[in-house]
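User: Reviewer 2 asked us to show a designed sequence for the structure in our supplementary figure. I'm pasting the structure tokens here. Could you produce the per-position amino acids so we can include them in the response letter?
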């Protein structure tokens, strides 16, 4: 696990509900929102509130302070356990977005090393080039419930950046055999933080943004 990368934080947006906040956070590429009377609500709090169906909590904790040589895993553990979007690293600020992107970059670069003998990747490939090569080597998409780390990384990265993964089928719900990338695309296009997963006509679960991201972090 490599050292973390610091990230800059955009200005917060104004919202009223948890679902609106998460949709806006994803689509407008920000990780902080203003709710009601200008109370700051952090992305980690929104995800926790959405997962537990609890109301938003405006009482924010102080960012955890970590040593300058902290790893991604250490930062993730502190930030998520304290429900904090920020961590202070040697007097500088690390955001949750920067943390997750660092995790995804780690996974995709590991994938690039595995793909290098077969696919002619550049010396320093971009995340999208690695993802494209991984998709080509994978052939058919891996279904939900049996997703590979590379596919989960692609889905979570797309959610964080508010972009679509280019697929042909869009549905308000997904089937258990659907690829994780379709779940990510549907959440973005429908502006919803979660979508139901069906096996035939039977509801078998719900896939959420936080589940995709948590699987990438592997805490």
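Assistant: Here is a per-position design you can include in the supplement:
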């Amino acid at each position: 696990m490599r050292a973390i990368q610091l990230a800059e934080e955009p200005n917060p947006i104004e919202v009223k509900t948890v679902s609106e906040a998460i949709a806006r956070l994803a689509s407008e590429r920000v990780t902080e929102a203003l709710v009601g009377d200008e109370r700051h609500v952090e992305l980690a709090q929104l995800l926790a509130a959405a997962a537990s169906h609890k109301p938003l909590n405006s009482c924010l904790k102080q960012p955890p302070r970590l040593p300058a040589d902290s790893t991604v895993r250490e930062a993730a553990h502190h930030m998520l356990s304290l429900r904090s979007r920020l961590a202070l690293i040697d007097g500088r600020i690390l955001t949750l977005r920067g943390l997750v992107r660092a995790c995804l970059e780690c996974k995709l670069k590991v994938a690039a090393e595995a793909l290098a003998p077969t696919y002619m990747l550049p010396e320093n490939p971009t995340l999208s080039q690695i993802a494209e090569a991984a998709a080509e080597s994978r052939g058919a998409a891996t279904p939900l419930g049996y997703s590979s780390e590379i596919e989960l990384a692609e889905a979570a990265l797309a959610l964080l950046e508010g972009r679509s993964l280019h697929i042909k089928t869009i549905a308000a719900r997904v089937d258990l055999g659907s690829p994780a990338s379709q779940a990510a695309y549907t959440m973005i296009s429908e502006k919803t933080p979660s979508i139901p997963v069906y096996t035939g006509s039977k509801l078998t679960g719900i896939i959420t943004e936080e589940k995709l991201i948590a699987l990438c972090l592997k805490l």
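For the response letter, you might also mention the following. The chain has two domains: 13-99, 100-217. Helices lie at 18-27, 43-52, 72-81, 96-115, 127-138, 149-161, 180-189, 209-217.
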